[in-house]
Hints:
By secondary structure, the protein is of the alpha/beta class. The chain has 2 domains: 13-123, 3-Layer(aba) Sandwich (Cobalt-precorrin-4 Transmethylase, domain 1), CATH 3.40.1010; 128-250, 2-Layer Sandwich (Methyltransferase, Cobalt-precorrin-4 Transmethylase, Domain 2). The protein contains 9 helices and 10 strands. The chain has helices spanning 29-37, 49-52, 75-87, 106-115, 128-136, 165-168, 184-193, 223-229, 247-250; strands at 13-18, 40-43, 60-63, 91-96, 120-123, 148-153, 173-178, 201-206, 214-219, 236-240. It has a 5-stranded parallel sheet with strand order 3-2-4-1-5, with helices on both faces. Strands 6-7-10-8-9 form a 5-stranded mixed sheet, with helices on both faces. Strand 6 (148-153), helix 6 and strand 7 (173-178) form a beta-alpha-beta unit. Helix 3 (75-87) packs across helix 4 (106-115). The chain is elongated. 43% of the residues are buried. Residues 21-22, 46, 96-99, 102-104, 127-128, 132, 178-179, 205, 207-209, 234-237 line the site of S-adenosyl-L-homocysteine. S-adenosyl-L-homocysteine (SAH) binds at residues 21-22, 46, 96-99, 102-104, 127-128, 132, 178-179, 205, 207-209, 234-237.
Amino acid sequence: MKFTSDKQAVPGKVYLVGAGPGDADLLTLRAARLIAEADVLVYDYLVSPEVMKLANPKAELIFAGKRRGDHALPQHELNLLLVKLAKQDKRVVRLKGGDPYIFGRGGEEVETLFAHGIPFEVTPGITAATGIAAYVGIPLTHREYAQACVFVTGHLKDGSIDLDWQGLARKKQTVVIYMGLVGLPVLCAKLIEYGLPVDWPAAIVQQGTTPNQRTVVGNLSTLPKLATDAAMKAPTLVIVGEVANLHTKLSWYGG
Length: 255
Ligand code: SAH
C-alpha cells in the first residue's frame, strides 16, 4: 500500500482529516492510518464512535463539540488550540465529520495554521451528501431528472437563512441542504414561493449511513410535517429534487 504523505511520524504537524458521514467503513485508508498514528485527536460530535475506536489507546482525545447551540469550544479558541498542540511537537489529527472542506469550517482552521506557520495536510472524506445518496438510493444527478446538484447550508451564522432562492428553485437540479432541519418549513416555503411546484419531491434523512438511518420522502408541501411526525433527529440531510422519488426503488441499506 502506498501513501503519498510521509510514512514516518512527523511531529508538530496538523492533519485535517475527513471522518465520513458515520459508517467507519467509509473512511479513506489514509484517514484510518492518520487516526491510528495521532498523538492527539481533536474531534467533532459528528465523528462516529466506531471511527474513534481506531485511535491509539494512548492518544489524547479532545472533544470540540459543535452540536447546534452547544459549542464546546468557540471556533477561534479551537483554531488556536490546534496551533498550541502542534507547537508542543505533537502529531495532531483534527477529525471532522464528512469532508473537512464542506460546511466544516476546515478552511478557517487551516488559514489559522497557515498564519502561524504550522505545517498541515488535508485528507478528504465522504461528505454527508454523497454518503447518504448512496445509502438511501437517491442518486444526486440522473440523466432524466437532474443535471446539476447544489449543496447549501440551511443554517447561517446569525441564525437566518439567506440563500439564492431563484437559483435554487430550478427544475432539473438537485438541492442538498445541510443543517436544514430547524429551517425546513422556511426552506420548503421559499422554494415554492420562487417557483417550484408544491408537489416537488423532497426527502429528509436522519443519521445517514449509520444503523439509525431513517428516510422520509414527501414533497415541498408535506415534508415539514412528515419530518415532525417522524420525530427526525439531527444530524439530518434534506434532498430536494425529482431524484428523491428513486429512494423507493434504489434503497438497499435499510432506513
Ligand atoms: N463536513 C460535513 C458537514 C458538516 S455540517 C460533511 O461533509 O458531511 C453538519 C451537517 O452535515 C449536519 O447538520 C447534517 O446536515 C449533515 N450531516 C453530516 N453527517 C450526517 C449524517 N450522517 N446524516 C445526516 N446528515 C448528516
